[in-house]
Predict the 3D structure of the following.
Amino acid sequence: MPNPYLTGLDKNAANYQPLTPLTFLERSALVYPDRTAIVHGNQRFSYTQFYARCRKLASALAARGIGKGDTVSAMLANTPPMLECHYAVPMTGGVLNTLNTRLDAQIIAFSLDHAETKVLIADKEFSATVKEALTLTKVAKPLVIDYDDPQFDVPGELIGEIEYEDFIADGDPNFAWQMPDDEWDAITLNYTSGTTGNPKGVVYHHRGAALLAQGNIITASMRKHPVYLWTLPMFHCNGWCFTWTLSVIGGTHICLRWVRAKAIWDALADHEVTHLCGAPIVMSTILNAPDEEKRDLDHTVEFFTAAAPPPEAVLAAMADAGFNVTHLYGLTECYGPAVVNDWNVGWDELPGPERAAKKARQGVRYAALEGLTIMDPQTMQQVPADGETMGEVMMRGNVVMKGYLKNPKATDDAFAGGWFHTGDLGVMHADGYIQLKDRSKDIIISGGENISSIEVEDTLYKHPSIQAAAVVAKPDDRWGETPCAFVEIKPGKALSEQDVIDYCREHLARFKCPKHVVFTELPKTSTGKIQKFKLREMAKAG
Amino acid sequence: MPNPYLTGLDKNAANYQPLTPLTFLERSALVYPDRTAIVHGNQRFSYTQFYARCRKLASALAARGIGKGDTVSAMLANTPPMLECHYAVPMTGGVLNTLNTRLDAQIIAFSLDHAETKVLIADKEFSATVKEALTLTKVAKPLVIDYDDPQFDVPGELIGEIEYEDFIADGDPNFAWQMPDDEWDAITLNYTSGTTGNPKGVVYHHRGAALLAQGNIITASMRKHPVYLWTLPMFHCNGWCFTWTLSVIGGTHICLRWVRAKAIWDALADHEVTHLCGAPIVMSTILNAPDEEKRDLDHTVEFFTAAAPPPEAVLAAMADAGFNVTHLYGLTECYGPAVVNDWNVGWDELPGPERAAKKARQGVRYAALEGLTIMDPQTMQQVPADGETMGEVMMRGNVVMKGYLKNPKATDDAFAGGWFHTGDLGVMHADGYIQLKDRSKDIIISGGENISSIEVEDTLYKHPSIQAAAVVAKPDDRWGETPCAFVEIKPGKALSEQDVIDYCREHLARFKCPKHVVFTELPKTSTGKIQKFKLREMAKAG
């Protein structure tokens, strides 16, 4: 008997539309027209205004010839134009490429060339880098639009053809933007910060952006009208897609040009912020603020962190300060976070160290990610769920990138065997939660034994006088490698190398203890990740 | 220049998976294994058990040959097997057809034949109807599985080949179910209750089910671990997709075989129910419970209602009783609710009648529905957003059905012009909210003037002695039609026909006032909708 469900039940415009985050903003402008969408200094934009500004920008870009497959790059801080780019560029059919504002001219030039950027919108603050980058590009000769922030005294010069507000001034607030032809069409392009070789261009599609934007709401248990503080750079995986998330539920974006303690505390208290995200460095900034900059909060704030498991001591201090910390994990290739340390209510009853051990695990897939596992990358077999057997973290699903732009080799490698190879090593626990045991490049092999730098770092973070710590491999003639610790001491405290080593010996197997300790400020990326490759160079040199 | 985003960035298993609600249950079983998924009488099933029971059922069905495109029908109350069918049947590639348990044998037989049902799972309570239906089918000769509820004393007899628990007993709890080949594959089949002609078979797909399941969470601002009481029949649009919603966030299903006041109040209090859905009749059941059956609630309960706008008096009484009522609108063809009266915070400040007028509007699209408008069905032009110009409610998007099974003519008509024609008439207000002005068949045309029966009913509901009311057209030689009111009087109250007419004249234009008033219990469908066609027959006859 033929399958009756395969006949006369095809897709048409009434029952099939491309998934895209663009419809979220259209809806919020309809449903919450007067609600504040964006706060930036003294500026306030309602959803009506936000949507109109996006359509004006889109129409102005379209008038300059931007259309399907054209790249618009943005070198912007967490300001209104950056949010507007997230809607306006895809409204034209174009692709938004957000640039990491901390990178140097050479890498920016590489990105502009590789992306074939047609328009570049750049904040005055980054004019020196952009100006230099534009002298270095070989292919890209973009139209440059300056953003001269009216709300802050920003250093730099105007280097473009036109200022942002002037550019959109003549745009059409009723611009009839088009849905994407296909939900698989590209929406954004994010370059990885790759420590070796050229950055890779990670391409997102409308489908994944719409699904992760909604996935954030579900994962974060966000109710209607959240107030979201932009401590996470929007250039980082499109702000983990929260740039789009808020439009689903009429939230308020609190922009933040500079991530400084006073501005954060003021925003938390004055705007009653409900949610914020950031690397662990943001937690340090919050916790280590001078007392006179801290403010009383009358509500619990949800903080989502990624990049490294939050140390127990930091979690406790955050709880005392009124924050509930959720630990996420992801990569540029999966739209930001796609794994969550989904907290089991029963774990609240565990003793402190066991509780912290649970919290340190990366966790389980978002509902929006269809598959997450740990495999032997050679055999593509799952490793036993024993919490010990190492393998590579593998993902599959609709919030995994389209691939790397103009890099079929890297794309094929990343997707070998039908799974996305994250390059991160980890284990699977008996309950199905995964835990990174180390980024593959961070593993220390000493006398044939594997040492997890995370385990050593966790120990160091428990020392009452240590503010931050990172551990890398130092080449050693006898052992191959030995652990070398880099330590930031808390203000007013003192520590010797031997103090640190003795403390580790109390808590760790002897072979895992650092042989060398360096007291220094840790070098960090613009997104707050500790730059271990620099530490490795230092360890090798000294 | 060729579009670089169209090359080397294709779909593969790592970055594209079919959307389906099946992965939600798999995830909850992993993440919340010990959490209670189902409460039924004294039965408790954890997520581990729920998932295992679904896989056992799926494997037992597969062993009987159920596979892609095969229909499994369920004639079940709101019990665990009904929930299990929602996962197990699609796990086999089959299609679940839930039958309205209040329908008669003839319509059930029609459905079984039309659906080509291979397996029928039937509750003992409905054995008389099912037994008769099976004598009437011409094509379908399904395997019949009885469900003999161990928790309740259910009348009826066992008429099938095997009992449900015996059927799944030998199933494989680790059954390796397959993802759908395509997210467009059918997942369920729901027959409309169509008052004229044969019912139409509305086909849902995995994509829409996954999207509306998540859309419910976002629309209802549901946090993790809701407790959901099944006052809405699961056979009704798959329980508005809440059958799948709860698996996304590890919620608890509180089953309810019989929708009676005491059972509802006990569940609300004992299980700390957070959410429930139902037609207005469920609100009446709750509010009109004897005092000794009511319980104190220490939390606000979210109630979602559809079918008819909640009258102001009912809303006020519900608020007093501790419920927050949200007004939804939808049809079988859009997976249940796809429109929400999204409440603007500022409206709380409005005077009572204006507030009630806002609450009576059907509202705006779910974020999961891409398009909602009011059009002239002839010209397919939007009507002016003036709150007055009538047109037909039109929808488009991913939560609109695949089409009607084996009915290409009806499917084509429903999707004419690239929009789904709901058959409901309404207006669009200036703020973009839609309001039904009347189901097209319920309009009363008196002396050439259109009368909205909803408007007249709203007036009647405000009368302190009226419990429920419905207004239909009565043929009239002079006027063509006149409004005829059917009224239920509150216990202990008395009213005359003239009292009712006088009251209406105080509040309505004279031509809108009922010319006849009938005091009677209103006939309702199994889902609580007032059966206006019966009232029309009565009006015509008497």
The first strand of chain B starts at residue 36 and ends at 40. Chain B touches chain A through 71 residues (CB under 8 Å). Chain B has a mean pLDDT of 92.
